[in-house]
Amino acid sequence: MRLGVLDVGSNTVHLLVVDARRGGHPTPMSSTKASLRLAEAIDDTGKLTRKGADSLVATVDEFAKIATSSGCAEFMAFATSAVRDATNSEAVLARVRAETGVQLQVLSGVDESRLTFLAVRRWYGWSAGRIINLDIGGGSLELSGGIDEEPDVALSMPLGAGRLTREWLQEDPPGRRRVAVLRDWLDNELSASAAKVLSAGTPELAVATSKTFRSLARLTGAAPSGAGPRVKRTLTAAGLRQLISFISRMTTADRAELEGVSADRAPQIVAGALVAEATMRALSLDAVDICPWALREGVILRKLDSEADGTDLVETFAGLAPAKGETR
To answer: In CATH, what number does 2-106+295-309 get?
Structure first.
């Protein structure tokens, strides 16, 4: 089955086309991205602006046509933090559906966390034991942990790299004192959530997903993406501390010249590094392995699993039950 997965995030809209079957390894066929920066198109009242909505509609329409021309039997489209947080999200979703025919599903932060954990579990397998996973997006940070495919705990916090850059690190480069204050604030914000994750059990494997973690690992010496997804990549706490002291003194333009940092990610890589550092510190992690699979793959795997009981995409998302110990 050829599937098209459209991920509308805070920074980018990403279409992934894969050939997949239940029990098999999803094979990527093509990947198309557009940098919309929807989180920056939220006005003072919390609404997604008309310009931002126009860009979203046009991009969804274009990418849906690409999925059709690519021979996708099904097209799964979902949105995360930026659309989820917009006070006019229902109106925006209705417009997308009316003008493109695409029913864009909004995932809750907890469901983001759980679907990403599913992908991580499938990648590492049962032999990995209890896994803890960290994922930094543009608008939110997701934490999850467990020994099964359904995590024992799944959390989402508004600590994304883009969000914190806009709220805390507006100077270029950010001031040393501002970085220090943000570090302290993050420690306070993460303490309760980290304790909840660790209370579920001591992890045997610590994992990180998302473009932010991949970039940070690359900047600290991990293999480039061209080496393939199965090359082991690790980010250490010590390497991360050294990296922060280096990149926090650089301008955005200079950071964009670093290998592994795109021009789109350069403005928020410092905030992303600080979130990663604080999260690892709160969870007492010396290192994390970088998993190439994340939310999009989790959506694909959930869809393939649902084929067995005839559940469609809307029912798949709507039917996500609370994680163990979680409430909605």
So the answer is: 3.30.420.40
- Is the pLDDT confidence value at 328 over 90? no
Domain ranges for the chain, please list them. 2-106+295-309, 124-290
pLDDT, one tens digit per residue, over 190-218 is: 999 999 999 999 999 999 999 999 999 99
Residue at 52: amino acid letter: G
What global pTM score does this model have? 0.93
Q: What is the DSSP string of 9-68?
A: -SSEEEEEEEE--TTS--EEEEEEEEE--GGGGB-TTSPBPHHHHHHHHHHHHHHHHHHH
Burial letters 68-89, b for 16+ CB under 10 A, else e: eebebeebbbbbbbbbbbbebb
pLDDT band at 23 (very low <50, low <70, confident <90, very high): confident
The answer to whether 2-106+295-309 and 124-290 have equal CATH topology is yes
pLDDT at 318 over 50: no
The fold of the 124-290 domain, in CATH, is Nucleotidyltransferase; domain 5 (3.30.420)
252 burial type by CB count under 10 A (0-12 exposed, 13-18 middle, 19+ buried): middle
